[in-house]
Structure formats: C-alpha cells, structure tokens
C-alpha cells in the first residue's frame, strides 16, 4: 500500500484553505497574535478537547458547534486564554466568532473559536475585534506560516507539517499547525492543533481517524505533567480533492488515517522538542509489551518522569529512574525481564545492572534527541512517547509567565 509523503506547508497546504493574521497587541506589542483559518467551502469537522474539568469559554463554544456539523472558519488568539472569566468569557468567545463570521460573510454557527495564553484575565475585546477584521482581510492561500507564528505563546519556533497520499486515484493533502511548549501532558495536552484536508471524508470516519491520530501523537507527548484548560485539536475536511468519499473501513481510510497520524506525530515531536527551557527531545520506546495500553502507560510515565528528565539534562545514564517510572505507570510487566537501552547502548538486562560503556552512553546523552528503549520481552505491542529534559530555564520561564 502506498504511504504518505512529506511536502512543505501547513494549515493552508490543502486545496481551498486560507489563513490570515493580525497584530492586535493582546499581550505583546509588534507580534502576530490573531489568526483566522478559512475554507472556501463548508467542511466536515471533528475535534478532540481537553479532559480538564476547568474548560475555557472557547473550548465550550467549539465543542457545542462541532455537534452541529459543518464548519468553515476558526478564529484563534494568543496572549489570553479567556479561561475562568464566567459569563463575560462566553460572551467574548461568541463575539469573536460573530466578528469573524460577519467579516467573511458566513453563518456564525460555522465558526469555531480557540484561545491560548494567560488564564483568568479578561479579554481585551477593544483590541481583539479589530484584530479579527484585519486577519480576515489578510486571508491568503499562502498564509499558513504566518498563522503558525500567530498562535505561539512561549514557543520558540512555529510548528507546521503537511503530507500527501493518493486516495481513490486522487492526490489528497493533509496539513496542520500546532502550538505548545508548556502545560503539555497526555489526555490532550497549552496545546492547540488545527488540521485541514481536502479529502472527502464522512463525519464518522473523520472523527475516528482524528481519535486514532491523537492517541498516537498528542496523547503520547508530555512536557511538564500539566494539562491546560484550552487544549484542542480540530480538523476540517472540505472534499475539494475530489476523491470518492471515505466512508467506512478499507484501504482508502487507512491511507488517509495514516497520513493524518503522520502529520500529528510530526507536530507532537516538535512540541516536545520545544518544551519550555528544553535542550533535548526525549523519545521513549517501549517494545514487546503484553498490550498496547501497557506499552503506552509505561512510555508516557518514563517520558514524564521529572527524575528521568533531570538525569538526561545532566547527562547521567541513570537507568534505574527509567525502570522505576515504568514500575509506577500501571503497566503490567515483569521487571525481571526488562532490558533498557540508551540509544543502541544496553544499560540494563533482565531488570538488573549491566556493565556498559559510560562513554558510549554519554555520546547518546549528548545528542539533541535522546532515545530511551525499554524491551519488556513479554508480547508484541509497541508504543512511543515524547518528552524533553527538565532544565533551570523551565522554572525561570514559568516563574514570571503572568507578569
């Protein structure tokens, strides 16, 4: 079966999608902080949202509107989360959607809203509403890169990805952008992701494909074990590729699902790589577990362990912390059968110490990406999680984030 291939671009890579941005001065002057994503035709949509019991107003608005079916635009701001603002927060989120809808000329119910930034501060609507009008006026099929910049908060670089595959004899494109560097943890990790595709996909298949992609990507990434009030991953599918509609299991569905998953994994890895204060991407691979859930539980626990993260920052081959984290993960495994590797250097065998080369282990720990492998030697299920090292800068960044 053919696989997806990479291409440049992001949220506007697929046919019929545009993006526009504006600098409204919500928190920072002279940087883009509003983005509008627009499909030239109404699109099928699906979404996954934060599991945090405290949900920001834009999340509540977007969750409700996704139940209505078609979506044609998303308006996003950075610098203010519009969370914990009561009825005023809901009014402001609805006003943002209304402003975008009026400026574009589409039904208000077809506009979703997303926000990211400081929690518990009122939205400066005197800046936001004019900014939305400017962003709509800036809509362009090449606006994706600027949109990826506009949704950043403490991110140090914009995050984009795009893939293509052939479905039903037609070339189908999946693109996306994401932001996130802190408050990132499995079960929707402050993470925003916006995905677009020109594939024709039924609503049920789109939801299923997104849930699969998120389970393999954003729910396998952790920076600091905090889950935000504003997390969401949204996908719009406008059907302009002209493929026969994907409606049910089969080769076409698998091709589309895998292309979407590849985009999400790429974005998730960038989020972990850009973790607040991070100097290294940590990739934790659990192999040969009894079940997929066991593999995922252990991989997430190791990637999220503060002790493991600190050891990797300090370039200390402290494999005992790795096994310890797997042990409290809830995964079912026999500690006496676990082999552990740093890169290709085996550092433990059957859950016990092994004479290994500290020099070769240090070479692995000096790399920008550090691979940690646990082989459970119990089954045939594998999973990968991503995280980052824990550095002094993480505390510095979060010590004065609000002010």
What does this structure look like?
The strands form 2 sheets. Strands 1, 2, 3, 4, 5, 6, 7, 8 and 9 form a 9-stranded mixed β-sheet that branches. A 6-stranded mixed β-sheet has the order 13-12-11-14-10-15. The chain is an alpha+beta fold and 403 residues long. 33% of the residues lie in helices and 27% in strands. It has helices at residues 57-66, 86-104, 125-137, 144-150, 203-216, 251-273, 292-304, 306-313, 319-327, 358-365, 392-399; strands spanning 5-6, 17-22, 34-49, 71-80, 111-118, 159-167, 170-179, 192-197, 232-237, 281-289, 339-342, 345-349, 352-353, 369-375, 381-388. It folds into 2 domains: 5-269, L-amino peptidase D-ALA esterase/amidase (4-Layer Sandwich); 281-399, Ubiquitin-like (UB roll) (Roll).
Give me the secondary-structure topology.
Layout: E1 5-6, E2 17-22, E3 34-49, H1 57-66, E4 71-80, H2 86-104, E5 111-118, H3 125-137, H4 144-150, E6 159-167, E7 170-179, E8 192-197, H5 203-216, E9 232-237, H6 251-273, E10 281-289, H7 292-304, H8 306-313, H9 319-327, E11 339-342, E12 345-349, E13 352-353, H10 358-365, E14 369-375, E15 381-388, H11 392-399
Parallel strand pairs: 4-5, 8-9, 10-14
Antiparallel strand pairs: 1-6, 2-3, 3-4, 3-9, 6-7, 7-8, 10-15, 11-12, 11-14, 12-13
Helix pairs in contact: 1-2, 2-3, 5-6, 7-9
Summed up, the helix count is 11
CATH homologous superfamily identity of the largest domain: L-amino peptidase D-ALA esterase/amidase
Number of strands: 15
- The radius of gyration is 21 Å
Strand % is 25-35%
User: How many domains make up the 3D coordinates?
Assistant: 2
CATH architecture of the largest domain: 4-Layer Sandwich
Largest sheet: 9 strands, mixed
Helix content: 25-40%
CATH topology of the largest domain: L-amino peptidase D-ALA esterase/amidase
Structural class: alpha+beta
Whole-number average pLDDT? Answer: 91
Uncertain ranges? none
Give the termini distance in whole angstroms. Answer: 52 Å
Order of helices and strands: EEEHEHEHHEEEHEHEHHHEEEHEEH
Q: What general outline do the C-alpha atoms trace?
A: globular
CATH class of the largest domain: Alpha Beta
